[in-house]
Design a protein that fits this description.
Layout lengths: L43 H4 L26 H8 L2 H14 L6 H17 L5 H10 L11 H14 L10 H22 L10 H16 L6 H16 L6 H16 L6 H16 L6 H16 L6 H16 L6 H16 L6 H16 L6 H16 L6 H16 L6 H16 L6 H16 L6 H16 L6 H16 L6 H16 L6 H16 L6 H16 L6 H16 L6 H16 L6 H16 L6 H16 L6 H16 L6 H16 L6 H16 L6 H16 L6 H16 L6 H13 L6 H17 L5 H20 L7 H13 L8 H14 L15 H13 L6 E4 L7 E5 L4 E6 L14 H12 L3 E6 L6 H15 L12 E2 L1
Parallel strand pairs: 3-4, 4-5
Antiparallel strand pairs: 1-2, 2-3
Helix pairs in contact: 2-4, 4-6, 6-7, 6-8, 7-9, 8-9, 8-10, 9-11, 10-11, 10-12, 11-13, 12-13, 12-14, 13-15, 14-15, 14-16, 15-17, 16-17, 16-18, 17-19, 18-19, 18-20, 19-21, 20-21, 20-22, 21-23, 22-23, 22-24, 23-25, 24-25, 24-26, 25-27, 26-27, 26-28, 27-29, 28-29, 28-30, 29-31, 30-31, 30-32, ...
Amino acid sequence: MDKSSAGISGQYTRSNNSYNQPNGLAPSSRRGRYRHATVRPWDNHHRTAPGRNEFYHSSGTPSSQHLQCRSVNPAQDFNALIKQEIMDDLLSKSDHFGHRYNGKNHSQFACSIKEYTSAAKRPLNRAEQSQLIRMLQNFTPTRSWNWRSLTTTLHSLTTAGVFTPHYPMDERVKLTQAHLLSTLLDAIIFNCCQKPQARNIDARGIANLLWAMAKLVDNGQKQTPEFNEAVVALLPHVSAKKDQFKAQGIANLLWAMAKLVDNGLERAPELKETVAALLPHVNAQKANFKPQEIANLLWAIVKLVDNGQERTPGLKEAVTALLPQVNAQKANFKTQGISNLLWTMAKLVDNTEERTPGLNEAMAALLPYVNAQKANLNPQEITSLLWAMAKLVDNGLEQTPGLKEAVAALLPYVNAQINQFNAQGIANLLWAMAKLVDNGLEQTPGLKEAVAALLPYVNAKKTKFKPQGIANLLWAIAKLVDNGQERTPGLKEAVTALLPQVNAQKANFNPQAISNLLWTMAKLVDNGQERTPGLKEAVIALLPQVNAQKANFNPQAISNLLWTMAKLVDNGQEHTPDLKEAVAALLPHVNAQKAHFKPQEISNLLWAMAKLEDKGQKQTPVLKEALAALLPRVNTQKAHYKPQAISNLLWAMAKLVDNGLEPTPEFKESVAALLPSVNAQKDQFNAQDIANLLWAMAKLVDNGYGQTPKCNEAVAALLTCVIVQKANFNPQEIANLLWAMAKLVDNGQEQSPGLNEAVAALLPRVSAQKDQFNTQGIANLLWATAKLGELVELNQATSSFESLVYRISANLQFSQQEILMSLWGVMVCCARLALDSNANKNNLLEKHMDDLLTRLENTSPDNEEDQSIMSMAASWLGRACPVIRHYQTTISKTQVDFRDQLQLSIPSLKIEEEKSLNSLPPVDLLLPDHNMVIEVQGPSHYVGGDFKTRNGSTLLKIALLQKAGFEVIEIPTKQLLNNDLMKPYIDKIKIRVSTPPQDHSSESPKRG
């Protein structure tokens, strides 16, 4: 209760005019159409519009009870207002003149109520309103009242707060209030509908009435059918008198229409015509608007557009006319005006209004006044300002020093006024801070303090947030965490408090909110949020809504939703029926909306499809159609992708091909379109992008995409980035990078200084992070280090192997594929040690080899390469071979030519070709009588085809042959191009075959 009015209680006092009327009817039962009132029809002579001269015109001064605005005690003023003799006097006047009474005295009393509240600088409080309305039960306007009395009464009573609903509210008060409003509206409608038009309807009265009606709705009154009828009845009079409105009237009218529409009034043709009629007068009167009117007009225009108003030339001209006035009047705006104007400009930009020079100048002019007026801002204004700045920045406004100062000036006031923000304010503030941070604003101590101060209020007000507020809050928290906000207990509690509200409100979220919420959950989980029962239930609650709203999602929402589902699945979400249905529901809309996706959205969509497929999503016809629809867009938008999008796109394409997608011409064109951007943007890729890109290139090449000049240039550009960023790669990225380099080399990538330096830069990181690699990372590293062969210095290779192999024995969760890769890698390391006579032999590695082979004993791999690995390991260890491998053989022309020349030179020499020894891969030429093997080594046996640096496969084969007792002679194919080049090798063989056999088990191979 407001205690400024002494002696006022919320209860009615009894008087001779109590509610218990002799006829059993409440006084509110006089003429009126409000549905809750019991009404009595007018007499027939009241229904006839009397002539103007038949009305009674009060003269003289108001009655003695009429209150003038003066400096007296507010309680005394109010007690004077509710004296019974005032109402008796008004009833006496009304009864005396009957249907000729024009309502002047009643309107003067309504003015005195307004003057009281004006002097008190507040509307009536609930207790005052209750006592006053009890007295107003016989204050009944009639159709005989003139226009001025009606407009003055409604305007004054609305301004004073007589019609403002209070909660809780006595039913009798509510009925009296409703009847009073109903009778006023009925009289207004009656006056507006007179034919010919009533001559006393004036422009000022029309403006005041529409302003008052907008205020009624804004204060919580319902828009009853009668209320809407009154609005519609007034609108033609606005158009008819459009040339008579002054600047204030134009501003009030447009404000009123925007308020009414924003509160649910239908945008009928009459309303559209009225707005169109007023807009040219904004331009004509632009120099006459006061600061508050400028702010209200721009607010109104934005609100109308927000609610579907077409952005006509007239509307654009009105905006253009008003913006320079903002700059001209910048020093005269109050805090609310500054707040509303910046909010308005943010909305204009957000509604695709071009950021014209006028708009930019207006924004720049206002920002310094935020700082200057910061101490006078109320909570709502602080919220609106931070929201507006976040929106402007999100739509491309540069974060100028002026903007940063304005934000910095506001943040301490968030903390200072923390307990005064309502639920919507808290949601908007956290949204604004998240948006600003997401667009590059530094997370200063002031911002962190403001966030920390707001988070407890999320929990405290959790049941008061509307669906949009819940969605915005969770989005904001996810964005802040994604940009480095610490996951404090307060933040975790806020998330925990909001998640049940998602389930409770699941049916009330609009499409954008559904999209944002699911995105949020995926982001939170991706940043370490535990998948609690509350989070799982929220996801389960939202997924059916995706299917239900599938036709209403815009392109960004479709992209975000598919990205979200892929992320959730990537972080352990089951492929539930609801999730599958949601994905299936969205995919057709990718095709339907293909022309509207932005570059980032195209990237996210392809990434999501690749990820979903990698996690078990079937390549359905709908998914293939979605992919086919997007691929041409990759090429079309190639100039607009950011570094991360380029990385995601190439990763996605590599993944899709790796999972069986046929590389169509469109697919290859998309890859070719992206590759130049890798080189062009190489300095902007972060560590993860670099790792993903090199992995993607290796996968594409491994799946048949040719090593084109563009591909080679992209790889060369990325290798330099590996060297620069070497300290920033995490364990998985290190493993992926070394795997990618080995794969590229295995597919013919030439050796270059960049490749050598990149490998050398990464290997020390393996030992440094040895405890952090997962099973796949360990397997990839062992395989890659082995595959690179002599490119990796032996001591470095041995050190890396020794730092990793112990993890294999300690971890029994290796997959069969990971065991096979690890086994092959360990064998190559043992082979290198065996081939180097100066190296210390490592029996521990052989023990690990034995353990790995034992773990494969009960498996029967179908893959021939895997069978070969097991055969070679058994041969090395002297164990029975668990599988029998059948090798396919190919004989090169160079090999045939050399064999023929060798046979001609030594006719008696027995030569066998492509012979498999001890289940090992076939040898090129075998001299069985001399236990000698000749390997004709083409470029594929060397790293980068340099004919110098042998790869891991070559080294393993040679070591296995030597371990089996064979002498091995290696001859590079480039040394066998003609007979002259062959001769030295043939001569060497002649000498060797004439020499008695020796034990070659540990002899290094002889190479040209």
